[in-house]
Design brief:
The protein is α/β, with parallel strands linked by helices. Helices cover 31% and strands 23% of the residues. It contains 10 helices and 12 strands. The strands form 2 sheets. It has an 8-stranded mixed sheet, with helices on both faces. Strand 1 and strand 2 form a beta hairpin. Helix 3 crosses helix 4. It is globular, with a radius of gyration of 21 Å. The protein starts with a strand and ends in a 12-residue tail after the last strand. The relative contact order is 0.14.
Length: 325
């Protein structure tokens, strides 16, 4: 079965007066219908930028320098802006981290939902209003019909995020890109939002690209996970494998930093140093200055993804250089 979304060797660059900064470096991944792929990493790893590149919302002077983005067999990274606007909302829905950036504070929820549905579907006004009620009910807004005429400021943060999800679903898209959808939400509200996203895949066959730094969210809501570091994909595999048996030293550090009440260790794992800036990406493996297991090839050769069990890992500890370690 062909994947719904295919991203092949994606490169995103930012031209500056001092040279070209490469923010995304040859990232590839696929998502099948009904599947949720989690993207995780520290701030600055390139998670959100990857999502924005897929949907064609890179801020200038950012640009896709090379690579391909395919949606259901159609290449979309080179589409004219007018055609891409038709894809956004209709085929791809976006949930941004801050719901206030997605909602117009001057318009009621009814107006925003109905206008979105009318723009991307052939529904009548009455059908759009009926669908708006169903969407709000589906995302867990109580008394959905009476809340349609509320303004965004009349909702709590969690409720606003549910309205944003309803907007993203309004045209029945094939793909949802969710950028930190549970940030700053109560734990109980987080669980409800994740349940809505999970139901999408199970009942509607919607694919979800879930961008987060929260490994608890990854464990709860994803089928596979892609770990990013300094704009590169360094590990990808089934969520359970990556969480419980991480392979890349960076992923090991991320997992070791998660509090575990059953663990015997007195202290959490700490990864020394910090994510490099785009102006100072080190040669070879970008993680090698922080890695306790680095050896000769790490500081000069960029590791290619290697199959390891059911996962793939871009690390010289695996593959051809392994024997020299």
């Amino acid at each position: 079965m062909a994947p719904l979304l295919s991203v092949n060797n994606l490169v995103v660059e930012f031209p500056t007066r001092r040279g070209i900064l490469r923010a995304i470096d040859n990232v590839s991944f696929e998502i099948a219908r009904g599947e949720t792929l989690g993207v995780v990493g520290e701030s600055g790893a390139g998670k959100s930028l990857t999502g924005r590149a897929v949907i064609g919302l890179l801020q200038r002077p950012g640009r896709i320098a090379s690579g391909e983005v395919w949606l259901d067999g159609t290449r979309i990274d080179q589409m004219p802006a007018r055609e891409m606007r038709k894809i956004r909302g209709r085929r791809i829905g976006m949930i941004f981290q801050d719901p206030l950036t997605s909602l117009n504070p001057l318009y009621t929820v009814r107006r925003q939902l109905v206008e979105t549905i009318l723009t991307h579907t052939n529904a009548t006004v009455r059908e759009a209003e009926q669908k708006s009620v169903r969407l709000l009910d589906a995302v867990g807004i109580p008394a959905a019909e009476t809340r349609l005429d509320s303004f965004p400021h009349q909702f709590s943060g969690g409720m606003r995020q549910r309205v944003v999800i309803a907007l993203a679903l309004s045209a029945d898209p094939d793909l949802i890109i969710a950028d930190e959808p549970t940030t700053a939400l109560d734990v109980s509200v987080q669980a409800q939002v994740l349940d809505v996203l999970k139901t999408l895949g199970e009942e509607r066959g919607t694919a979800v690209l879930l961008i987060t730094h929260d490994m608890g969210v990854i464990a709860e809501a994803t089928d596979r996970v892609m770990v990013m570091y300094a704009g590169r994909r360094i590990e990808m595999g089934p969520s359970a494998d990556v969480i419980h048996a991480p392979k890349h030293p960076y992923t090991v550090g991320l997992m070791g930093a998660i509090p575990n009440p059953d663990a015997e260790a007195d202290r959490l794992t700490q990864i020394p140093g910090a994510m490099p800036s785009l102006k100072a990406i080190p040669p070879g493996c970008a993680f090698h200055p922080r890695c306790e297991r680095r050896f000769t090839p790490c500081d000069c050769t960029v590791p290619a993804p290697q199959p390891e069990g059911g996962s793939s890992v871009a690390c010289h500890l695996y593959g051809p250089a392994e024997a020299a370690a």
